Amino acid sequence: MPQRSDAKANRARILEVARTTLAEDGDASLNSIAKRAEVGPGTLYRHFPSREALVLAVYRAELEGLVDRAIALLREEPPLTALRHYFERLAGHIRIKRGLGDALSAANHDAITTESYGPVIDTIALILTTGEHDGTIRPGLDPDDVLLMMGCVWRTPAGPAGEAQSQRLLDLVLDSLRPRA
């Protein structure tokens, strides 16, 4: 049976509030999330029967939005600029995942890492190929290698100094993708 429009709206609001709340505090209670989303605890539990179910749904929704946004970025921006924005968002996504790590069992943590790998690699490959075709990205790059280089960006510490460092590292990564003279 299809969900009613108010149920869909409640679910979307819960996911958005949970994303923000759990990114701020990985130990936030489900009751605090329900309160911030302005729904009752029963409504939250009807959509997400456990904390882990909510965390997984937040992560999956973030990943889906990330991939969709990358494709839109390619229509709006040159490939290297699109890749920069994608990687900035991906770094934020990885930080959210890291912050949610305690809320996930080891099995689910491994499962979502495996689940997210394909869409992330496919998106990187699409952007690299687009850049190859317009000459802004050198040919023959392996998306796995590019993703591995990006690991440095989301390992920077939180706060202004870490953000500045992640931007410098992102500049280095993107410069390495440009065609050689």
TrEMBL record:
<dbReference type="Pfam" id="PF00440">
    <property type="entry name" value="TetR_N"/>
</dbReference>
<feature type="domain" description="HTH tetR-type">
    <location>
        <begin position="8"/>
        <end position="66"/>
    </location>
</feature>
<keyword id="KW-0805">Transcription regulation</keyword>
<dbReference type="Pfam" id="PF21597">
    <property type="entry name" value="TetR_C_43"/>
</dbReference>
<keyword id="KW-0804">Transcription</keyword>
<dbReference type="InterPro" id="IPR001647">
    <property type="entry name" value="HTH_TetR"/>
</dbReference>
<protein>
    <submittedName>
        <fullName>TetR/AcrR family transcriptional regulator</fullName>
    </submittedName>
</protein>
<keyword id="KW-0238">DNA-binding</keyword>
<dbReference type="InterPro" id="IPR036271">
    <property type="entry name" value="Tet_transcr_reg_TetR-rel_C_sf"/>
</dbReference>
<dbReference type="InterPro" id="IPR050109">
    <property type="entry name" value="HTH-type_TetR-like_transc_reg"/>
</dbReference>
<dbReference type="InterPro" id="IPR049445">
    <property type="entry name" value="TetR_SbtR-like_C"/>
</dbReference>
<feature type="DNA-binding region" description="H-T-H motif">
    <location>
        <begin position="29"/>
        <end position="48"/>
    </location>
</feature>
<dbReference type="InterPro" id="IPR009057">
    <property type="entry name" value="Homeodomain-like_sf"/>
</dbReference>
